[in-house]
Records
---
Amino acid sequence: MILVLGCLVVTAALAGTVPDEKQVLRGRIHQEAGKPPVIQTAGQKNYTISGDKFTEAQMADPKLNGREIELDGYIAAPGRFDALKIFTIKDGKRYTVTYWCDICSIRTHMPGRCMCCQGETELQELPAP
Ligand SMILES: [Zn+2]
């Protein structure tokens, strides 16, 4: 029953019908070998994050380990957060995480090698609109 309700809430959230329940989770990415990456909040709480493939890949990007980030989304269960959006925080401001290939002039939200030339991409954070 709880699972069914959870699905309904998430579906409604994606449709934008329950904006009141949207929450912001701020903390630092903590990656540890053999464990899913978590967000550690200032209150020393740990949250595992589920989200789209870009959010989950960024959570696991070693370049972002230890960084302060903010997630928009919903607390799905104790210690679990469903993220709709992920931002890095610099000087208190939100940034969108991108990866730039200088050779192909391709920008993506997926960490790792360039989808085109398979070269290294450069982490670039752009001020969030
Ligand atoms: Zn490339």
---
Amino acid sequence: MISENRVLIAGAGPVGLVAAVSLLEQGIPVTVLEASADLAVDLRASTFHPPTMDFLDRLGLAEGLIERGIKCPLWQFRDRKEGAVATFDLGLLKDETAHPYRLQAEQWKLTEAARARLEDDASADLITDIVVETVTQDADAVTVTARRKTGEIEQFRAPYLIGADGARSTVRKSTGVAFPGLTIPEIFLSLSTPFRYDLAIEGLADICYISDPEEWLVLLRTPTLWRVLFPTDPNLSDDAVLDPVRIEERMQDLLPGKPYEIAHKTAYRVHERVADHYVHGRIFLAGDAAHLNNPLGGMGMNGGIHDAVNLSDKLGQVWRGASMDLMGRYERQRRKVAIETVQAQALRNRAVLNETDPDKRRAYHDDLRATVADPEKHLAHVMRSSMIQSLRDLEDVS
Ligand SMILES: Cc1cc2nc3c(=O)[nH]c(=O)nc-3n(C[C@H](O)[C@H](O)[C@H](O)COP(=O)(O)OP(=O)(O)OC[C@H]3O[C@@H](n4cnc5c(N)ncnc54)[C@H](O)[C@@H]3O)c2cc1C
């Protein structure tokens, strides 16, 4: 058994690694245990909201990411047939954030940068190819039992453990904390293509939510590709959803032209769930291990990074002698955001995108147009959609 005075972190996704960097910045040693042989490099989240960039800046992780991403100050709500309904301007946030834009960059660029920071620090260990299997705790410490790829079992004992091991979190399951919620009756098909939608559609913003009573979609620009996210019938098999002929038909329906080159395709089921507790003694849950929501609005990974920063700030204070009661505030603050802001907003975003009632659609579109035309309402809207408001509101949670 390896017994050390450090923080254990299960999972080297964006949340586990940001928590690790944030603890290292406070002089707290960390060991990160990652099941995979290497960090994930597939296409997942690709939007960093302004306050996330502010946090990453504080941790020295923003500059490199900005160099490898695209700054997008505008995002659009569109109607698939009628075109742009409203264009929101994050530039209005210039007095609220040092980063008044969404940065479009793939999440693996953040995890790569965070790993480099860990490699430079003698008080950080990142162990890959090791699966956390069980977790127990007593009054003084947490014991993690993990299995190396070679089959060898190893135990780690430390005063605290962060469970940032994703949606199927073993840490969460080991604590017995419930994860109530629902699975959305839709498969999300995420495609990426080198096709330049920005050159083909006049006035298109780099981030577009496109409503339609029959097939809504999301168009997102990344540094080298455009991503297209379609909802798909959950009764279809993954093979049917990913069928290249059907994909080509859907791409042609969206914008007819030459055959599309598809660089990546993924089909994934989306859940809306929030763990009953984020704190279980000396064990803390963060990121997808604690909450899941649909990707509309790009709040899942961003909310997870906000968890990581909030959690490690408080854990740092506990490390330096503050009462463990402080960790209860982490749970109260971040669960509230997950339920009242992220989940509520993501469900609203989905509802408005696939609204079928023509009167309701018209009323919603009129409301959006009125919002952007009124500077105060426009600012309030981008404060919410950029997640700045959710962080400000936390100050009132004791
Ligand atoms: C296919 C896919 C597509 C996505 N697309 C989008 C998108 O378009 N937009 C969006 O906003 N979000 C998207 N997401 C969600 C987004 O990627 C997550 O919100 C984000 O990665 C959460 O970060 P995390 O660090 O909490 O968890 P993860 O990124 O899942 O990281 C968890 C890490 O823990 C490791 N791990 C798991 N179990 C163990 C164990 N027992 N022991 C040790 N290590 C373990 C995993 O290997 C992984 O590296 C997508 C997710 C997936 C899976």
---
Amino acid sequence: MYAVVGASGNTGGATARALLSVGAAVRAVVRDAARAEALKTKGAEVAVADLDDVDSLARAFEGARAAYVLNPPAYTDPDLFARARTLAGNVAEAVRRSGLPRLVVLSSMGAHLGAGSGNIGTNRIFERALAVPGCATVFLRPAYFMENWAWVAPVAAQAGVLPSFLLPTDRAIPMVAAADIGSLAARALQDASLSGVIQLEGPRPCSADDAAGAFAAALGRPVAAAPVPEEEWGPNLEKSGFTPRTIAAWVEMFRGFNSGAIGFEARGTPPVRGTVSLGEAVRGIVARR
Ligand SMILES: NC(=O)c1ccc[n+]([C@@H]2O[C@H](COP(=O)([O-])OP(=O)(O)OC[C@H]3O[C@@H](n4cnc5c(N)ncnc54)[C@H](OP(=O)(O)O)[C@@H]3O)[C@@H](O)[C@H]2O)c1
């Protein structure tokens, strides 16, 4: 049985579905059992646990062949880095207490960077804390999520513009769909021959202009990418309730993407290529709205 933390979310849900699709036994680890109803219907066992509560997490890991964990976004927390340190420490302790033999940790492209990567620094904290002796660990470092465009999907649908912090809008960067992350995570949970860092990207790099084109096709209306100038990033993020520390981290991260400073680790194994196109991912975003 494989325990999946964050099973009610984007990548955890995709991981649980990928495991269930090959007949593997899944324990969906959620804070609220109601959020795992769909997975339960597909055959998953449900365990209620919180990354803030080591006892509940250790119980959720007990008897599992492997577990999938992530650092949940904490953008409204006063200090997202301190939060990541606490949660990573809790996971490490739960791994020790439960004797979990194998762990797949969702990290990020750019987690090898010691500075200048903004909130990707939280993924680096997770990687460093989760090399637990006695537990085989895989660190999945996916590219920029195609599903990030869901944040601005309502604007695309209503106004025909796709606001973008990725600048210039015709510059392509590696992007990947949650479904590809779920498939690879499911493989990494089951296949003991996989270990260490695995980088992951989609079929080809994509730009904000490509995303606008994908929304135009999915919505059946013209959509154009609208560059958001850097001086407007902070005020925009403030409206979403982000704390000053988070805003500074996001600004640093998007500067890093836009300058090319954030990318895959060149010294590492070349990224695995997923199969889900930006068009398919955006059709999924539009269908779920
Ligand atoms: N966005 C990108 O481009 C990108 C790229 C690379 C890596 N990443 C990394 O991806 C991660 C986010 O993954 P995601 O998109 O799958 O996240 P997500 O969709 O926001 O899901 C987060 C999950 O964590 C659960 N959760 C939140 N707090 C919890 C707690 N205290 N205890 C237990 N579960 C908790 C949530 O459950 P509830 O339903 O209870 O809220 C939810 O299921 C981040 O670490 C980010 O750095 C992101």
